[in-house]
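Hi both,

Apologies for the delay on this - the queue was longer than expected. I finally got the flavin-adenine dinucleotide-bound model through. Below you'll find the protein sequence and the ligand SMILES exactly as submitted, and right after that the structure tokens for the full complex including the ligand.
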Amino acid sequence: MSYEEFQPKSYWMKTRQYAPGEALQEDIDVDVVIIGGGFTGLSAAYHLKKAEPTMRIAILESKVIGYGASGRNGGFNMTLFGLTLSITALRFGKSKAKEAHHYMERAVDLLQDLVRELNLDCDYEHPGFLRVATSEKYKKRILHEIEFAHKLGLEGIEWLEKDRIREEVKSPMYLGAWWEPRCGILNPAKLSWSWAETIQPMGIEIYERTPVTEVTKGLQKITLSTPKCKVHASKIVFATNAWSHFFPKLKSKQTPVWTHIVITEPLNEEQYQEIGWQNRQGIEDARNLVHYYRLTADNRILMGGRDVSLSKGYNMDRDHNEKIFEGLRNDVGEIFPPLKNIKFSDAWGGPVSVPIDMAPAIGYLGDKRVVYSLGCVGHGVSLTHLNGQTVRDLVLERQTDLTDVFFVNRTTIPWPPEPLRGLTAKAIVGYMHIEDRLYDAKKKRSPKQLGRSS
Ligand SMILES: Cc1cc2nc3c(=O)[nH]c(=O)nc-3n(C[C@H](O)[C@H](O)[C@H](O)COP(=O)(O)OP(=O)(O)OC[C@H]3O[C@@H](n4cnc5c(N)ncnc54)[C@H](O)[C@@H]3O)c2cc1C
């Protein structure tokens, strides 16, 4: 796969050059092999090598490093786990919701520290995060979540009233916001590739354009088949995220769901001043099918979310959805009326890994020689980095505070087989849509009403 082939996968991939490395050319025998070159695989490899410098570790990536969600996401380094804090509490109980939030805080801080310590080149900014209320019902929902967080003893989240939030960002839609200064934003493709360039000199082998087609467990070693060669390994890590269902043992643990993004041309000074987003926070709203948006280093607006595309059988080519792209372009003009005629440069999508209860799952698969980590849904930028440390501890068979976390080695609720899987996913998303419509303040204005010609 050449640079020209994968570069259209996201705007981020155009922000720097990357020359993919060689595919695996001969059989190898390693201590640990990691399938998947996204943040999970990269972080796990780094933390393993740091803990055990003599270990021979290889990453096998079917396309190029960062090809999956890691090179295409919104770049929010944030604390959200699962859908919301209160839904996590409903599913797992209050103390586990608190534990999950603490894990996420640790994940956000870890990523920021790694970026600084290792000088990872990713345009990292630390502007904090706003969850904005765009109707009275969402305001109630956010206030309830903040009250619940405080009751659990969680700190670092506060409510900003309407006047305060509009001093930060000028949108007529905002009625107040959840404010969380801990969070950051970054360029995810740059981060992925900077990771690759950081860990290779440590002795970690990376083979790109090397899809794993089969995994066979032997008594001594596990054998992985790739198109040309075999890899023999003592231990193996599945870091395949939304592609995990291609492996029979992981098939029922998650399903892929696509989220989409559009991005504007850079704002000019006048446009930038008009929307007054001088502190550059990452922003989400409080819908089930959230909007997430932010400024890039060169002052474009990235707008993502609003709806999702579902998988059809094993087809992983669902990146483009014109209806969602058009909706997102209109959303920019609705949230920021001075930008209603702004031009857009790119639109893309990517698959996230969704367990049926929308909470991550990490653990052993069968025996302690096989570890997997998946299910970060749309909030894996921070989480995958800390999961890399958790994976390290599982591979090294160490019991630590990370391996004791409740979602490690948890029993997952299986997705049913097709065609029920598709129908279940459709029903869940359908319910989310209905609730969002009830919560949205008013009917969305049409492109014509917004004065957009195409
Ligand atoms: C559009 C979008 C926006 C998002 N926005 C945010 C955000 O702002 N903040 C946030 O926290 N999270 C966000 N996420 C989620 C986040 O990007 C992911 O949770 C995270 O990147 C997952 O990392 P990963 O390494 O587990 O998986 P991936 O990055 O998906 O990596 C999996 C890799 O495995 C490879 N692979 C699969 N099968 C094989 C095989 N058989 N052999 C070899 N290699 C294989 C794939 O090619 C891929 O590179 C977003 C996701 C998307 C798609």
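Main takeaway for now: The longest strand covers residues 344-354.

I'll put the files on the shared drive as well.

H.
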